[in-house]
Protein 1
Amino acid sequence: MTTTDVRPAAQELPDQLFIGGEWRSGSAGTVTDLNPATEEVLAEVQAASAADVDAAVAAARAQLDGEWGALPGVERAKILHRVADLLERDADELARLEALDVGKPVGQPAMLDVPNAIATFRHFAGWADKITGQTIPTAGYFGRPTHSYTVREPVGVIGAITPWNTPLMIAAWKVAPALAAGNTVVVKPAEDAPLSTLHLARLLQEAGLPDGVVNVVPGRGDVAGTALTTHPGVDKISFTGSPEVGRAIQIAAADAFKRVTLELGGKSPQIVLADADVDAAVNGTAMGLFFNQGEVCAAGTRVLVHRSHYDRVVSGLAAAAEAQVVGDPFDAATTMGALVNAEQRDRVLSYVEAGRAEGATVVAGGGRPDGAGFFVEPTIVTGDNGMRIAQEEIFGPVGTVIPFDDPAEAVRIANDTRYGLAATIWTRDVGAAHTLAAQVRAGAVWVNGWAAIDPALPWGGMKSSGIGRELGWSGIVANTEEKTVTVVL
Ligand code: NAD
């Protein structure tokens, strides 16, 4: 199968705004959506203006006091299960859309993005009728007994702003918990990959979600995104993207004390201890570098290796890089696709150059293949943790391998970064696993496996990797306000 065989007819692609249950044009022109593997135009997607965002927020607000606001959790759960059923029905099509729009090999969204989105809707369907409070004993009120309890209420209208790397999955991470808790949502997908989120909107409609509960406003970040973050009718922004935009959103949200959840980037360490299963570690660290072309917030881009294994891991990762099959996302042999756009490709290559200038050694890759498409070679460099390639998020298939002499040094290097999203530890020593898990400053620590994510597990970062947590019960907490009620008896 080739890209041309699977490309849906242009009129089938969802390319409009979804507001109040209606599909309509935007009033800010269009945004050109390219196929990263061919550089061909996939769609001219309608772009939302501030007025369009205003209409979407009005539709979402109306439902807080409307049919949706009155719906009990058990009924919300049924709708979320129906969405999961429809995602299952359309799983192949969604995987194809994601591969077309993002440039990733189609087997990857079929294996991760789509099943994870389905599991996320099912997980939060399970919570929808189980969001409980507490009864809390107190000392009483001026000598009179009291009965105090808490309830969790929806925050209100959630503005969800998503990136292009795993768009369906991240939209699901924001929409499913928001709906489970009774909120309404306006989603602003990324300019480069809005199609799967728009398809999700079709499925939400088909599942019987009342009009206006979820609205999707594709468009430019500085237009539609800014309109959403500054809108007085939005109670919370849930953002996944770069630290720079996250900072701007937090500042904009401060004006009205909007709640924010920020899921930002990372420069995650993968630590290979002296007692590690080295073959498993090489396979796992390679996956943490090259999966999704390295366009993963939790990519394990700093591979810290005990000096006794350093040469073996460097040559193993170089061999893994050379073994990657880079090319057509729809060829079953392909293991790595294209980066999302020309700017991202050039940014990645410029980091490799910066590494060379600082004295890093490129042991595999480092360039780009000839021909169309925003491809970059899988790249392994050796260097030290002070270099820009080891400190700044590259968001591409580039890993820096750094030696250490003892676990304390590994932890020091691991924590010597502005980021704190994830860390992987490769070891057969259960004591070392727990000790290092406690010492590494990261929102998620994985032992002997990279990216063991699950909708039941809280997700988010420390330091510049973000604020707040999504998923699991934490996702419900993030989408509710806690109210205390005291009755003086
Ligand atoms: P980005 O920050 O450029 O864009 C993310 C979203 O924000 C897009 O929808 C964009 O249109 C919008 N946006 C841009 N400017 C805006 C503004 N001024 N106001 C409001 N919205 C605005 O990020 P990206 O390039 O799409 O994604 C890559 C980044 O996302 C990387 O830094 C990566 O690490 C991060 N990321 C983090 C996670 C996580 O869970 N922590 C997951 C995936 C990606």
Protein 2
Amino acid sequence: MAKLWAGRTAGETDRLADDFNSSIRFDCKLYRQDVTGSMAHAAMLGAKGILTQEEAKTLIDGLAGILSDLESGKLAFDWSCEDIHMFVEQELTNRLGSLGKKLHTARSRNDQVALDLRMYLREESDALDAEIRDLLDALLAQAEQHRATILPGYTHLQRAQPITFGHHLLAYAMMLLRDLDRLRDGRKRINCSPIGCCALAGTTYDTDRRMEAEALGFDDICRNSIDGVSDRDFCVELLSDCALLMMHLSRFAEELILWSSWEFQFVELSDAYTTGSSIMPQKKNPDMAELIRGKTGRVYGDLLALLTTLKGLPLAYNKDLQEDKESVFDALETVHQCLRVLTPMVRTMRVRADKMLQAAQTGFLNATDLADYLVRKGLPFRSAYKLSGELVAECLRRGCVLETLPLEVYRTYSPLFGEDLYDEIRLENCVEKRISEGGTSARSVDGQIAYVREQLRKGSERK
Ligand code: ARG
């Protein structure tokens, strides 16, 4: 096929070099944005008298036809085109003859590709936003149900203090709220129109960049044409938001994996989100959760790949920038997949409150509360801490727990101990007493749930 740039060069490019250069295999994803952007461009050219209104209308109708034919499957991509932009222009010219060749007046593929990508990522960011809110919904439903369900809280993966399951789940809700906040903030910087920056220097035609930007739903235009065609910060930001989000999902997935192990048995994942083993008949494997954990690495990789591509690029457009799309597409596809699987997994998991409580009953989770009891009786905290430690050691020697250690023994350690100590160290009490804001008591969990709901409500008002 004759090259777009035939004129400057006469020779054929090598077939392998053509394949190497071409991006249509992956940027075909941008067809809708490309056609819609071109429609707005034709409208602007018509409104400004750069093309006649008649010509603009014919171009717009032609583009609309291409879009609906692509969508209905009547029109297939021509993989021999270099990229999606060339494909649409070629198809338009096939349909409209030489008028099709007028569409590319006062623009370049450099501002066109940046425009398409920003329009695409703006939608993707909104889709992610909705998926994160779904996951938050699932977390809140479980947290509500388990506002008072007791389990061991861990530090160093050693049993530390009793907490409520609602409290633990809400820790993830807070991470996801921050993820939402970051996405929404980044969206402002995505939603800036580069179209009209042209190749890099702007144009001699009397264009109206703002008209085009407004027609396409942008909040602003890129203020410097060189920056407009070479800026990919918005891609890096979105990828970094994805990487952080995946880190959160991965930590949660890791806990689901631990909790569904025979050793913990805190949750049972639905059959819909587990697999069996090909050899061991008893196995129920948390494959999907493991994949969420595993795929986190590839999203980090996408972020690093793009940052590395951008490093040291001279201004303005360089073909290296074509590499942005595969990283971004791969990361987004991965994050969508993970969220779509994790949300129903959380919704359907069976929480084993009995096993959680059983685990909380061993491991001396109430030792801090025993020390606090002595503090309330007048002992300085450090001394109370030491005494409680000695009592734990005593229990270990006797093979009992703090709840079953007889009062006489307690009293050999300190006369401050009275019958009321047993009430103080009851697990339910240890949890209920932790009413400090953000703490683990059921009441505090209710407050945190209300906070998350309020943030979600405010956020959706802003949108
Ligand atoms: N396929 C190219 C990309 O994705 C489009 C821009 C091409 N511009 C150019 N000057 N070769 O970046």
Protein 3
Amino acid sequence: MCGIVAAVTQRNIINFLLKSIQKLEYRGYDSSGLALINSNNHLIRIRSVGKVNELIKKTKNKKLFGKIGVAHTRWATHGRVSKENTHPHVSSHITIVHNGIINNSLELRLFLEKKGYIFNSDTDTEVIVHLIHWEQKKTGKSLLEAVYNSLIKLNGNYSMVIMDTNNISKLIAVCSGSPLVIGLGSKENFIASDQIALLNVTKRFIYLKEGDIAIIKPEKIKIFNKKYLIVNRKIIHSNLKYEHSKKGKYKYYMEKEIYEQPMSIENTIKNYLKNNTSIYFKKLGKKEKNIFLHLEHIQIVACGTSYHAAMVSKYWFESLANIPCDVEVASEFSSRKLVVRKKSYFITLSQSGETADTLIALRIAKKLNYLGNLAISNMPNSSLVQESDTFLLTHAGIEIGVASTKSFTTQLIVLLMLVTKIISIKQKKNQIEKKIIKILTILPNTIKNFFEKNKEIKNIAKKLSNKKNMLFLGRGIQYPIAMEGALKVKEISYIHAEAYPSGELKHGPLALIDSNMPVIIIAPKNSLIEKTKKNIQEIDARGGVIYILSDEEINISKNIKILKMPYIDEIVAPIFYIIPLQLLAYYIALSKGTNIDQPRNLAKSVTVE
Ligand code: HGA
């Protein structure tokens, strides 16, 4: 959350800052701002409430010029959404943009107010900039030392970039709690919260590690680790293309990402196949093989959509591998006394790999008696990946829509392949691998063909778009899919949607059923369908409006609408059945006219607790 971009160059960077900060809008879009140092060494600061487009409008016809500058897009944590609270924040000659939360900001604010500082905002960020100024004024030492001395006093997360009008040839970046990546140019350097903001200027990147402080000049970069020792960090050559971060022919990123799923699923499968006949995880070596052989329990921790993927995998771990598996929302896992099961292995899931709640859970788990831990993420250089014993990537490609789609289905692919690998390690034979690979290989095409049904889904969506509430029902492994379907609807259309296990309806929620309550039922033909049919009858008898997703002919009543699904193997059915629900949520939101990629109050990559 919150996006940071900064540059120190030999050319005018106003267009770069505006274009790049817009690429980070998915991280927050409450307000945005930028600051430049112009040719007279004066600070020019422009800030605006709302999307980056508002900021762009404000810069038009202003003939702005600056070779060094910072920009920010905000997801507010401290202080309302207002121009005063928008970054950059300034204290005399020092300017900062910040991503994070300062827990002790109130006491520091009181301290600084006593020293005479006047605050122009309610943010915790303004506390940091005055503190740095105070430290420098007090000691008369360099800005770097003032930054270092200030960090000791801060409690919280504070990834930030600092700019000084007294020294226009450098920026200082601090990485703490959320990612910062340096983009290396020729006689110019850049820094951002995500490399996609820099793909139009470079392909060479350095990911700062937790606690790093970097001095960034046009021709030189110096990095100190948290012990204040100079360190060399690896330069990474990215193969991501700027075009990958564009919407192309689609109206919204979410639409693009839904339709990209056959390709991203195929990529993920291929990445973990050896000779098309066995599953091969390069990152998992002898140590993990030994753990997999002996583990007796799996604990998975995640948030939001990743939590639903983890829930699906619980069914796979237990029904296919016979391994007990518990899944918990990360913030709850970190909020209670934990009892670690015997021979338990710890797994985290996060698209961005920066989800604060999940990171905190991992840090707690590392101090407990787990056999080891593994992260599943879409981001190879993320904090979760770096802090975990080992990791598996989802290869979904860049996902920008706030409502996750392709990262969900690719997480499911990785989880199913992992379950399969663990089974063959435990059983010391790989028949199961052959079976699952066969099922997985046909999945991308089945999804591609299914997209032809999108007209039918659009029609259902039109009927649902004026509803206030919706229920999603699923049984067994389809229950988490019902949860994910409901979440998609909530996130982008603001309709209250709730998921229930089909069998649970009569224990309370049945009271909600009337002709205004659409009920979406996920009912593939499997051993549970007869039970689900009974639930359908119960809802129909009470005048509920029923939509069923099924490959079975269900002739219960004329009032029931069926979205006929093609046959799909039961094991991968959850990966397939989420597709119509994603489309349904998308088309409902489209009918309502909401901002699908930037739903209100949300942001992607939730880097605050
Ligand atoms: N606390 C700062 C920055 C917010 C942030 O990082 N959000 O993810 C503010 O409220 O402006």
